[in-house]
Amino acid sequence: MKAMKKQILMAACLLLPALPARALDLHGLKPEEVAVWAAPVESGKELAGHRADSGVNPASTMKLITSWSALNLLKPGYRWHTGLWSAAPVRDGALQGDLYWLGAGDPRFNNDSLLNLLYGLRLRGVQRIDGKLVLDKSAFKGVSSAHDFDEDAGRAFTVEPDSHLTNLKVAWLNFYVDAGGARVALDPPLAGVSVNAKLQAGGQGGPNDCSDVRRYVSIANDMRSVTVSGTLPPSCDGVKTFVNVLDHDAFASQDFVALWQALGGAGPKGAGLGRVPAGACELAGHDSQPLTVAISDINKYSNNTMARTLFLTLGKEGGGGEDTRANAEHAVRRMLAANGISDETLVLENGSGLSRRERVSARLMGRVLLNAARGPYASEFLASLPIAGEDGTLRKRFAEQGPRLRMKTGTLKDVKALAGYWLGADGRRLALAVIVNSPRAPEMGKAMDQIVADLIDRFEASK
Questions:
Q1: pTM over 0.85
Q2: Assuming Cys at both sites, which of 78, 195, 297, 444 could form a disulfide with 74, CB separation 3.0 to 4.6 Å?
Q3: Are strands 99-102 and 81-86 parallel, antiparallel or unpaired?
Q4: Structural domain span for residue 257
């Protein structure tokens, strides 16, 4: 009978979650406000866990799951190809019909990329476009949402993904203060955007006192007209800031026209939407830089629009149904399943963390980190993360830990998160995730950082 009781007790103990060697100090956070997970990469044996299986909002640390999926499914050398197509002949320097811009959803497609594309068109011998510019938007069938951010509409971080995302759909206001006074110029000069300047030169300021021109000017922007007013000191000569203007189609079309004309081209005669016709030929093309460059931008600077565009690219390349967002979610879940990682707590909206809906568990995040660190693209994944005290969103954090700490940050209303790695001097690595969901999150940054520091100390002491 005693032996039977002992066996029952032993079996019951096996069902209990493993307890850490010593209690985790939450540094003022309430137990229900935070989820924590940490384990050495080399062993995978849990070093610490607190609410590690609870579904929590990860904010921008969700970008790590999207990046990991993309590296494995698309491969590091993946490139987006953007093309200009037409079925019309070119005679005497004139394209005698419509020009089709086949967008690829390149998240880093900027004005340099567009100029490269247009220069290729000029090399083809085209000087004038007699037809329309037609945007072929077939790359994405449906775009992922980011609900409940209406109050942030118009801000750059809420710009939606698009097959023709150009310059992240922002234009630049360039400020000049010289003998001619104070003035501002829009770059590129978009035909559908008017700039009303009420500027004067003056005021005091040192030679390096204009790191943010918005200290001196106010900018009112309704997406089609921009009013700028204020007094600019001489130190603001040559500085610039961005504004989010127009919708995607208007921005891409007008940017195309502005740069085409800057190259000496004429036309096109209007713009529209359509599909590349059968029998059309590619007149010019542009290949993006490799996927690894985009992932570095996404993770180091937490770019929501680029992350959402990359998420949709997973759906575009993964095939399946007519809903690109749904295809992207299926691709991520298949990737998790293929690596034995439970997706039970995963809720995906757009893959960027700019979401009130998205959920992960700290353990799910941690297991992705372990898989990424052990996988064939570990160096590419690690290189995309902000370096403590040096760059990206960690440039001013964790100076004491220094560059051995690389972590993705996440911030939303009521959410603060960190996920990444500590690289020990002996070559061992610690994967860790700390996620706070609480109305007190904005004031708990120091507590989070201290939890990370404690986990590092515990790991170093475990040698």
A1: yes
A2: 78
A3: antiparallel
A4: 81-153+248-287
